[in-house]
Amino acid sequence: MEQNYTYTDAFNELQTIVKEIENGTTNIDELAGKIRRASDLIQVCKAKLTATEDEVNSLLQQISPAQETDDDESLN
């Protein structure tokens, strides 16, 4: 998996591979390699999405810890 590959780059390349397979422009000799590459790109996208989700959740917790405490106290 490429460490410095952006989500956008991986997603765009994945779209290109899918179009080539759908259009029939990929011959049978290249098909396995393209599918393997698509699988790698999907893993890049998933890793980027997970990392972004974790970072956003962490930032949101830093922004509103008092609100969560207030909500917890109102339940009691």
Give a summary of the structure in a few sentences:
α1 (7-23) packs antiparallel against α2. This protein has helices at residues 7-23, 28-63, 65-75.
Topology, pairings included?
Blueprint: H1 7-23, H2 28-63, H3 65-75
Helix pairs in contact: 1-2
Q: What features would you describe in this structure?
A:
The protein is an all-alpha fold and 76 residues long. The protein is built from three helices and no strands. It has helices at 7-23, 28-63, 65-75. The longest helix is centred in the middle third of the chain and has 36 residues, at 28-63.
> What would you call the structural class?
mainly alpha
Q: What is the string of SSEs from the N terminus onward? A: HHH
Distance between the termini: 48 Å
Shape: rod-shaped
Which spans have pLDDT < 50 for at least 5 consecutive residues?
none
Rg over C-alpha atoms, rounded to the nearest angstrom: 20 Å
Strand content bin: under 5%
Write down how many β-strands occur, each being a DSSP E stretch of 2 or more residues: 0
Largest sheet: none
Helices, by number, come to: 3
Helix residue percentage: over 70%
Mean pLDDT: 86
